[in-house]
Design goal:
single chain, 8 helices, 76% helix
Length: 251
Amino acid sequence: YLRCMNFKRLLPNALTMGNLLGGAFVCWAAASGDNITDGRVAAIWLLAMFCDVLDGFVARKLGVDGPLGVQLDSLADMVTGGLAPAFVAYRLVCESGACEGAVLNALPALLVVAAAYRLARYNVTAAEGGGGIYFEGLPAPAAGIFWMGMTMWWGVVDDGSNLQIRTMLMVAGLGMLLIPLLMVIKRRFFGLKGWGSDRSMDVLRLIVFACFGLVSLGTWLTLGNVYAAVPLCVLLYSGLAFIFAPKNNTT
């Protein structure tokens, strides 16, 4: 019985560590000059974020969720949703030839600061019993999804396509400016999980996912790839969540 209980507690924490190590791998790859656009880094990053989705679900199903898991989860998210995006963003800045600009060099650091603040605020809210279908500010993992998509888009950009390169750099710039701001803002955002608890919210989620499909189709037709849709969909969701979430602090 004791061994079973220990295994139950070990499994969700092992998934959280998978999230942490996956984010650390992305940081190492970006810092070492490794090729971060060949799909391998994106695959490991995606696997890490999948572990992030599973750890809380598994902990609740096994009945072993608790404050330690919340803290570990936030520390892991700090790596996959804060440090890893900053490393990748800085690498993109340098490889675009803008490494000499002090302002551009500083922008990736905002991702780290914003993720730390967002996660600390989430931990305080969770400790006070907050929650529901809304949450305050863009979740840190969304930054990981955005920059994971940027690595995939970056890997398929044709050097001769000036339009696509300019578009990619413009979206990257928006990400460096808007993602940190959206993480620390006190506006309530609606979640994409929790289907079935609110019919009107389910309809809104369906609209959001339909928009994701349209964006994916649009990037495939105009840019020749669907990878560009990943960061664009993060920005789209952020905009829709900002517009349709309640303007007060009630959940």
